[in-house]
Amino acid sequence: MNTLHKHVFIALLAAQAILLSLIERLIPPVFAFAPGAKIGLANVVIIIALYTLSTKDSFFLVVLRLLLATLLGGTVMGLLYATVGGLLSFWGMLLLKRLPAPHFSVVGISAAGGFLHNLGQLVVAALLAKTWTILLYLPVLGSIGIVSGILSGILAKLLLDKWPHLSHKS
C-alpha cells in the first residue's frame, strides 16, 4: 500500500471517529443511572485501526481524534479526561493484542479497552478531587465500559470480517 493511500485511509478513519464522537454528544444519556457514562461509538474506529494500521499510525489516529473532537465542541477538562482514558485504553488494548497465542479476541480486547478508558477517567477525577473515594464508582462505570466495549468490539469484528482488505500495515 502506498503512502498516499495509507494517509487517505487514516484521514477517513479520523473523520469517522470524530463524526461518531460528535454524534454521541447529541444522544441523550443511555445510562441515566451512571452520570458521565457514554457508549463510546468512536472506539469502533480505534479498534479497526489497531487491526489495520501500524502502532504508530493507530496512535496518531487516537491523538488526532482526541484533539479534533475537543476543538469541535469539547472542553479543556474534557480533553484531560478523554486523553488519559483514551491513551490508557489504547496502550492496554495494544498490549493485549500483542500477547502470544492463545490471545484475546477483538471483542475481548475492546471490552478491556472500555474498562481501561473509564478507569483512566476515574483516576483523573480522583487526582483532581484529591480523594480516592471516587474509585468506588469503578464497579458501575467499569461494568458499563465492558458492556460498551463488547458492543463496539462486535461491530468492529463484523466490519473487519466484511472488509478483510482494509489492512494498511506497513
TrEMBL record:
Q: Which domain of life is it from?
A: Bacteria
- Locate the transmembrane regions by residue number: 6-23, 30-53, 59-92, 104-128, 134-160
Q: Does the keyword Glycoprotein apply?
A: no
Q: Which UniProt keywords apply?
A: Membrane, Transmembrane, Transmembrane helix
InterPro entries per the UniProt record, alphabetical: Hpre_diP_synt_I, Hpre_diP_synth_I
Q: Which Pfam families match?
A: Hpre_diP_synt_I
Name of the protein this chain belongs to: Heptaprenyl diphosphate synthase component I
* Organism per entry: Enterococcus hermanniensis
